[in-house]
Amino acid sequence: GAVVSQHPSWVICKSGTSVKIECRSLDFQATTMFWYRQFPKQSLMLMATSNEGSKATYEQGVEKDKFLINHASLTLSTLTVTSAHPEDSSFYICSARDRRLGRNQPQHFGDGTRLSIL
Amino acid sequence: DAKTTQPPSMDCAEGRAANLPCNHSTISGNEYVYWYRQIHSQGPQYIIHGLKNNETNEMASLIITEDRKSSTLILPHATLRDTAVYYCIVRVNDMRFGAGTRLTVKP
């Protein structure tokens, strides 16, 4: 089945540093990838839609200068949390949809990246 | 996108069928119903999806009412490993999660 890989699976950083999270579709190509954030005991919240070769679309309330998204190829999207602070600590999850299949086909999710800012 | 309503929690005995309901009364004609589950500290796992016909795969069955305003996910023989949060989602484009149902399978 379709596999989406995230790296790293967890990261601990000092406040003020920038952290890059990678999301790769391993056995399919994805024109569109999605980034979510999940705080403890809460549901997943869509942050942005990453579009290959063009700018990402951010959800209301998500700072695009804080969360930089790059979707440079059909198999890789990156999320960079710039100047991270403790309140950015969360579980970040990406998903992707196979470009060969119709829009109604399911998205496949990575296993998430747990980010802890000290 | 249509909103969904799910009970916050359910219990099920191991080996019995787990029936998880979802209301989506504002669903539109071209929106599919998707079910995912999330086991603690993992990414969501796709289970099944459908438009208006009932669907079955190796994991579960999806029963959608004729008016499409509600659906039920059926895990035919629940195991302890099926303990998770189950999300019912209806959408055309991006996928947005509600609070889901926390299913606890008990021995």
The helix content of chain B is: under 10%
- Give the distance, in angstroms, between the N- and C-terminal Cα atoms of chain A: 37 Å
Shape verdict of chain B: globular
Number of discrete helical segments of chain A: 0
Largest contact between protein chains?
A: A-B, 22 and 22 residues
Unreliable residue runs of chain A: none
Proportion of residues in helical segments of chain A: under 10%
How many strands, which pairing sense, and closed or not: the largest β-sheet of chain B?
Answer: 5 strands, mixed
Average pLDDT of chain B, to the nearest integer?
94
In the sheet with the most strands of chain B, the strands line up as 1-9-8-3-4
What is the mean predicted local confidence, pLDDT of chain A?
A: 93
Oligomer kind: heterodimer
How many separate helices of chain B?
A: 0
Question: Could you tell me the number of beta strands of chain B?
Answer: 9
Structural class from helices and strands of chain A? mainly beta
3D shape of chain A: globular
Q: How do the helices and strands follow one another from N- to C-terminus of chain A?
A: EEEEEEEEEEE
Strand-helix topology:
The complex is a heterodimer of chains A (118) and B (107).
Chain A: E1 4-7, E2 10-13, E3 19-25, E4 32-38, E5 45-51, E6 57-58, E7 67-73, E8 76-81, E9 90-96, E10 108-109, E11 113-117
Parallel strand pairs in A: 2-11
Antiparallel strand pairs in A: 1-3, 3-8, 4-5, 4-9, 5-6, 7-8, 9-10, 9-11
Chain B: E1 9-13, E2 18-23, E3 32-38, E4 45-50, E5 55-56, E6 61-64, E7 70-75, E8 84-91, E9 101-106
Parallel strand pairs in B: 1-9
Antiparallel strand pairs in B: 2-7, 3-4, 3-8, 5-6, 6-7, 8-9
